[in-house]
User: Fold this.
Amino acid sequence: MENLLVQGLSGLATASSLFLVASGLTVIFGVTRIVNFAHGSLYMLGAYLSWTLVTQLPRGHLGFWGGVALAALIVGVVGVLIEVLLLRRIYKAPELFQLLATFGVVLIVQDVALLIWGPQDLLGPRAPGLRGATMVLGVRFPLYELFLIAVGPVVLALLWLLFNRTRWGTLVRAATADREMVGALGVNQRALFTTVFFLGSVLAGLGGALQIPRESVNLQMDLVVIVEAFVVVVVGGLGSLPGAFLAALLIGELQAFGILIFPRITLVLAFLVMAVVLVIRPHGLLGRAPSTAHAAAAPEPPYLPASPWRRWAGLGLLLLAVIVPPFLGDYALIVFTEIAIMMLFAASLHFIMGPGGMASFGHAAYFGFGAYGAALLVRHFAAPMELGLLAAPFMAGLGGLVFGFFCVRLSGVYAAMLTLAFAQIAWSTAFQWVEMTGGDNGILGVWPSAWAQSKLVFYYLSLALCVGAVMLLRRAIFAPFGYALRAGRDSPLRAEAIGMDGFRIRWFAFILAAVAAGIAGGLFAYSKGSVFPTYMSISRSVDGLLMVLLGGVKTVSGPIAGALAYTWLHEQLMRAFDLWRLFLGIIILALVLFFPQGLAGALGRREGRS
Amino acid sequence: MTLEVRDLHKSFGGVQAVSGVSLSVAAGELLALIGPNGAGKSTCFNMLNGQLRPDRGSVKLRGQEITGLAPRRIWRMGVGRTFQITATFGSMTVLENVQMALLSHARRLYDIWNPVSKQDPARAMALLDRVGMAGQAARPCGVLAYGDLKRVELAVALANDPSLLLMDEPTAGMAPAERVALMELAARIAREGGIAVLFTEHDMDVVFAHADRILVLDRGKPIAEGLPAEVRRDARVREVYLGTGATHGYS
Assistant:
């Protein structure tokens, strides 16, 4: 009983912290329609900055609370810089692009924090006046946790006053309901967006700063908290403050009691809740469907069959890929193999993103299903490679069948978040189901059959399978099915009115893409000789997105060019620099700001001009 | 009768949008559904094409019950439609838009092997020829003029040899000269092909020039029905459209 009370109380404290972060995220989304991946980085910055300030300033109340407040304000200024320098230029870009841009900021902040504060975990001082514990209903409970429990409702009340009792707040609510209308009424949108971003960033910074007496400050906290904040915001309904509060309570308590009841699936629990909520209420508990009254999207460009120039370039590339490798060393062969595999992975993601118009932020799940499908057969049945490579697409297709059934019902940000939730469920299953998957240690000894042991032979095998699968996907894009998929993207209304079942078409496309990603994953497992949960991690999903967007989502050959450029670049950066994240982040930002059409798109424009 | 509608009702929250609408359209006949803004025309229309499910009442197509079916099923039973704001596939050419309807009609949407560009374009071209768009077959729909888009929609709507054509404000947003031309075209195709046409329209010139019969709605209820000449003389219709004049100080 006492144990339950303590868990319940610490759940409330967690909920408060979650709410601080999630409220900033949801307010920013409500007005700017940007899903800010860097929100977790702002939280992390808040924690690091307050650690520095609190330890530097004189001890005592002023030193601690002053340090916390100052840290939150500095984070607010950083947020304003991000908004003015980056986001302001991409408000009209597709949402995945915005998500990607803010992910670039995440990478940059990670390396900057590493440079400034070093890799070790930092322990902050306790809060003055709140050091001890007190008795709550006969149970000893830390004072600081009690203080945190109070912070959440207080912040909610203050935000409510701000949004309902000030002119600025009224404008923010109006902009959340209908941004275009507010613009038409002559409100200075730029100032509104910037101030909203400031407020949201301060909340994130405050959330981070208040954590230092509670847990150590480290470089992983940005992604941990952003994923949790996404769950809270999406469950509550994007843009809804009370929704975020409700969801924070739900998730906080769920995590507190989940450890008692289902210790084995703590990581999955939050995502299961998110998946269930999105399936039942597609816009979250208290969210509303975004107003689309003014959405007048520019028509997507048609897909053209490859120009003779491009056809020759493709053929030449393939010829090089066949002729050159026998003269290369093992390292180059490994890179070449990986490039071939990543081309297929990128092409499979492009299939649902481009013609399908669906946003997937969890495509790594199907890559991972393929890898695990093969590796599990090896581990438990000592199956040969031939069987493993057959099981890979089958397993991935099965995953796509189940997850896709739910994901293709949603669109935009919500679809992106649901795919992310499912990918995280798959990832945490692989991570926590140790008997089956080996957990964090992965599955080792996934080696090719004797005939394909040589790096060169395995490279040719990968090349043949990947090029074959990519060509099949390409064929499907230009066949009636690919057209039907595009039809549903261009005009769902018209597609339905000429007898098309949009749900079934998108579902089938999702499964096809999963199968293709599964082939890539299976090959990847055999090329590395091992399988780890990281194969399904967010960063691999982001890798896929980067390849597609780098190449250009609006062209069929885009993902090929993107995978080639990205894999090569990634490899070079990792080898040459310790701070490869920083460089990658800068490259992403440059890409988003200067080549919004991607590489293939930029090339196409040049062709078109000449 | 191609289309028979009995006693349709639909309310949104507390608002009774449509109450007690019945109508019928015979093959080759053009029935116009008119009424001031908010009269319930669009609601009525959307209950016929499957976008809305009626609270009460029945819709029969050639004797078969289609009430509450999904739009795509209603299309499969032979109902073509055009939208008030044109809905076409912007990333495809004019020809491909029509081909998609033909492919769907032939139930070949799940073909992932045969390129669309290798399909025989003859039938699609014939349809485009009927609406005068054959010359622009290769242009992407995203760049067409609005009047031309309306023609493409008509060709798409005719692709499954419909027995009923539903046209929601077919001439909205077009120049006056284009309106007459488009409606003449639609009327000719309907009469030649024995297609029943139900259309809503704000332009009274278009309505009185082309409708065989007219049904007038006001605040969700039918207030008059008959030949154009009868409706033109109807006192209640005049009142609804022109007002009694009392509010403006005339008597």
Summary: Chain B has two domains: 1-78+164-176+190-251, 84-161.
